[in-house]
């Protein structure tokens, strides 16, 4: 959050940026803002306001018992600056009595007012200030403090705080004598701490005050160094002159642009942030939302999205729109196999885990001066998830962001098709393409790289194109959370002790889901092997086994698992870039060769490196149906076809020496004909809605998906556009949609 004067300053800078570029359209003159220029200007302004030089304060905030006073003294000693404890140095000196006496004298509500007034009459600069536990409950005093400092939230596990307070026997906590337990009182106060903090220090159990103080200094350094976390293209070629800087992008720009201008994908310039063992252990008892907040704050700089605002987005994304309060629960299937259920979101697939959050990230990052058209290629589940996610934005954002999803007209299940078409709304449309997913995905990439066309849309309609496929970093990043959360749930449920390794088995087509698991391991999750499970379109399995990516003689097969009916795996480029020590020149050569010659071969040393972490195999259609049938007979659990493929491959490839987490990427209701065939149910020629209702009567696990059942009731005749497999035809559709939405 910014003080009012700072907001006005940012507004003036934005207006200054806007005034520099004036563009005419047929309708009226309008302003068009270069997003890169505008974000750079805003970022510079933010830096000049918040830079901790000279008179800025470090303000420590947290519950009673968090260690604010002790940590503040250590920081003051390290920096050689003044240390102010609000309790001792302001309140007691102002009142000439102890804080506990004042609280007993005036009561809870009046105490908060008196405390706030005392802080409002105080000012300091270049100091370390330790707040009281109740300061954040008084808005005016917090705005006053925030004007001249960074508020650092010392986030200590709740049980640690309760234990400390018992030892301290403190009698000066506001609300302590109201009959509310200390635990409930602390839970209530968290909403105020989340409201005000600029940066969070996650204080794991057992961390010493010295360790926490060092974390605070690191957090403050990161906060003020707004240029420290940048992104590059996977195809960026590093200059031989070390003094020449790479063309850096910030998180905001990577999310807005989606695809790099050279055709590569955005990746962090530096390594993924890591959590230490103590930090991971402190997350074992946390909720999914709490885990997401901690992990994503470490991956998104507060200059791009302030931490408190990010927390609000996460709470909105993973709220009541998920059928299960655990969001992505882990279920023990049998033996050493566990199912990670990723289908409890509103559209019944794992895409919801990122696409309920990604639209909020996107809407926050875009400058206010432009309209944005999101282009999405879908092999089945992404389309409805994107349309649903972006429809949940507020009215103002929906007026400037529109979505067009392109799907293979005859290459998705009947239910998926009905779901995509039925998810259309005022700012989102579905377009069927007379081809396969690879054509849809490749065409969208070509549209992004067509500077004449994108420039025309920008100048003529003030509209910028972007993507919500997993090529967009803002779409891929939230997926890291559920892989980390699954491991923590196994620890929490007592199946493993923290530090014990697990394998993960993931049905894989575009490589995004399994890549998110790789990033989770990079952050510290002890994943041993990544098991890549393919269907009959097993180009990835062959590549992992041989190092040869070859689609020359392959024809895309339509299978029971359409979400992985893919031959060109986009996110593989990100992983190869990571393995090849960020060799952008190699990525250019390999993926240009794939475009031109439809194959490439990596060197033996890279094959060996790949096979250290990855194993792979594929599953036939018959094996897929047999796995659905046998699993239901033995455990009463119905696997969707994608999950069945992963189970078959896990059974075949996993060595049983450690647990394996199988990603269940969709609810079985979306593939009712395949499930009915697998379970040998006779009424297979019914409508898709009656098939879903029939399956829901089987009293199987997982339970019926209520949102999908509700969708079947709405399956009237909904129109959608269909176009030929021609990039120019797709461009015409995009332009017409832009005209209809924004002009």
TrEMBL record:
Ordered alphabetically, the record's keywords are:
Pyridoxal phosphate
- Which residues does UniProt call coiled coil? none
InterPro entries to which the protein is assigned, alphabetical:
P-loop_NTPase, Shikimate/glucono_kinase, Shikimate_kinase/TSH1, Thr_synth_N, Thr_synth_N_sf, Thr_synthase-like, TrpB-like_PALP_sf
Q: Which CDD domains match?
A: SK, Thr-synth_2
Cofactor(s) this protein cannot do without: pyridoxal 5'-phosphate
**Residue ranges annotated for the Threonine synthase N-terminal domain, each copy included:** 246-318
Which Pfam families does this one have? SKI, THR4_C, Thr_synth_N
Q: Organism's domain of life?
A: Eukaryota
- Family of this protein: Belongs to the threonine synthase family.
Output this protein's name: Threonine synthase N-terminal domain-containing protein
Q: What is the lineage of its organism?
A: Eukaryota, Metazoa, Chordata, Craniata, Vertebrata
């Amino acid at each position: 959050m910014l003080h009012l004067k700072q907001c006005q300053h940012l507004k003036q800078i934005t207006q200054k940026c806007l005034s520099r570029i004036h563009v005419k359209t047929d309708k009226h003159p309008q302003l068009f803002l270069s997003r890169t220029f505008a974000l750079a200007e805003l970022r510079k302004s933010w830096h000049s306001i918040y830079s901790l030089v000279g008179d800025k304060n470090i303000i420590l905030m947290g519950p009673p018992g968090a260690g604010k006073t002790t940590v503040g003294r250590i920081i003051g000693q390290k920096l050689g600056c003044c240390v102010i404890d609000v309790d001792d140095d302001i309140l007691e000196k102002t009142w000439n009595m102890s804080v506990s006496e004042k609280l007993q004298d005036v009561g809870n509500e009046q105490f908060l007012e008196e405390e706030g007034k005392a802080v409002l009459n105080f000012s300091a600069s270049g100091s370390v200030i330790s707040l009281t536990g109740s300061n954040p409950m008084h808005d005016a005093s917090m705005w006053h403090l925030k004007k001249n400092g960074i508020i650092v939230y010392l986030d200590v596990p709740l049980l640690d705080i309760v234990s400390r307070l018992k030892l301290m026997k403190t009698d000066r906590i506001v609300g302590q004598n109201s009959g509310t337990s200390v635990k409930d009182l602390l839970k209530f106060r968290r909403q105020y701490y989340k409201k005000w903090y600029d940066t969070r220090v996650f204080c794991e159990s057992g961390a010493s005050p010295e360790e926490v103080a060092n974390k605070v200094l690191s957090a403050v350094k990161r906060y003020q160094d707004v240029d420290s976390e940048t992104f590059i293209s996977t195809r960026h070629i590093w200059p031989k002159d070390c003094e020449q800087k790479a063309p850096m992008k910030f998180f905001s720009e990577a999310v807005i642009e989606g695809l790099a201008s050279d055709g590569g994908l955005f990746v962090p310039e530096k390594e993924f942030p890591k959590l230490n063992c103590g930090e991971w252990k402190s997350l074992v008892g946390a909720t999914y939302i709490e885990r997401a907040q901690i992990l994503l704050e470490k991956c998104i700089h507060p200059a791009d999205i302030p931490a408190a605002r990010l927390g609000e987005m996460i709470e909105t994304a993973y709220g009541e729109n998920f059928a299960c309060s655990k969001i992505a629960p882990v279920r023990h299937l049998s033996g050493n196999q566990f199912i990670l259920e990723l289908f409890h979101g509103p559209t019944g697939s794992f895409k919801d885990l990122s696409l309920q959050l990604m639209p909020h990230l996107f809407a926050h990052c875009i400058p206010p001066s432009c309209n944005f058209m999101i282009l999405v290629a879908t092999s089945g589940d992404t389309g409805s998830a994107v349309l649903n996610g972006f429809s949940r934005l507020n009215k103002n954002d929906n007026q400037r962001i529109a979505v067009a999803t392109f799907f293979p007209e005859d290459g998705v299940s009947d239910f998926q098709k009905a779901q995509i078409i039925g998810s259309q709304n005022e700012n989102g449309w579905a377009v069927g393409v007379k081809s396969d997913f690879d054509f849809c995905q490749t065409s969208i990439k070509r549209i992004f790289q067509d500077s004449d066309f994108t420039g025309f849309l920008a100048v003529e309609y003030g509209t910028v194109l972007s993507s919500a496929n997993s090529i967009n970093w803002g779409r891929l990043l939230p997926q890291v959370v559920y892989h980390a959360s699954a491991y923590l749930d196994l620890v929490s449920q007592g199946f493993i002790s923290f530090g014990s390794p697990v394998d993960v088995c993931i049905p894989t087509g575009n490589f995004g889901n399994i890549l998110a698991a790789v990033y989770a391991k990079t952050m510290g999750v002890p994943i041993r092997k990544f098991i890549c499970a393919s269907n009959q379109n097993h180009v990835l399995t062959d590549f992992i086994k041989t190092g040869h990516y070859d689609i020359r003689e392959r024809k895309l097969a339509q299978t029971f698992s359409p979400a992985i009916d893919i031959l060109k795996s986009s996110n593989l480029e990100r992983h190869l870039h990571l393995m090849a020590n960020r060799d952008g020149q190699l990525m250019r050569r390999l993926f240009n060769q794939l475009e031109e010659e439809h194959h490439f071969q990596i060197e033996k040393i890279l094959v060996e490196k790949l096979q250290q972490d990855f194993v792979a195999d594929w599953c036939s259609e018959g094996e897929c149906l047999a796995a659905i049938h046998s699993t239901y007979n033995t455990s009463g659990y119905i696997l969707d076809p994608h999950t069945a493929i992963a189970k078959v491959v896990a059974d075949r490839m996993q060595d049983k020496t450690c647990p394996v987490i199988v990603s269940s990427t969709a609810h079985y209701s979306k593939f009712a004909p395949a499930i009915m065939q697998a379970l040998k149910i006779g009424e297979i020629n019914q409508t898709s809605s009656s098939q879903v209702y029939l399956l829901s009567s089987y009293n199987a696990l997982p339970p019926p998906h209520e949102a999908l059942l509700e969708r079947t009731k709405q399956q009237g005749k909904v129109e959608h556009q269909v176009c030929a497999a021609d990039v120019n035809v797709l461009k015409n559709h995009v332009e017409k949609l832009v005209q209809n939405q924004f002009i």
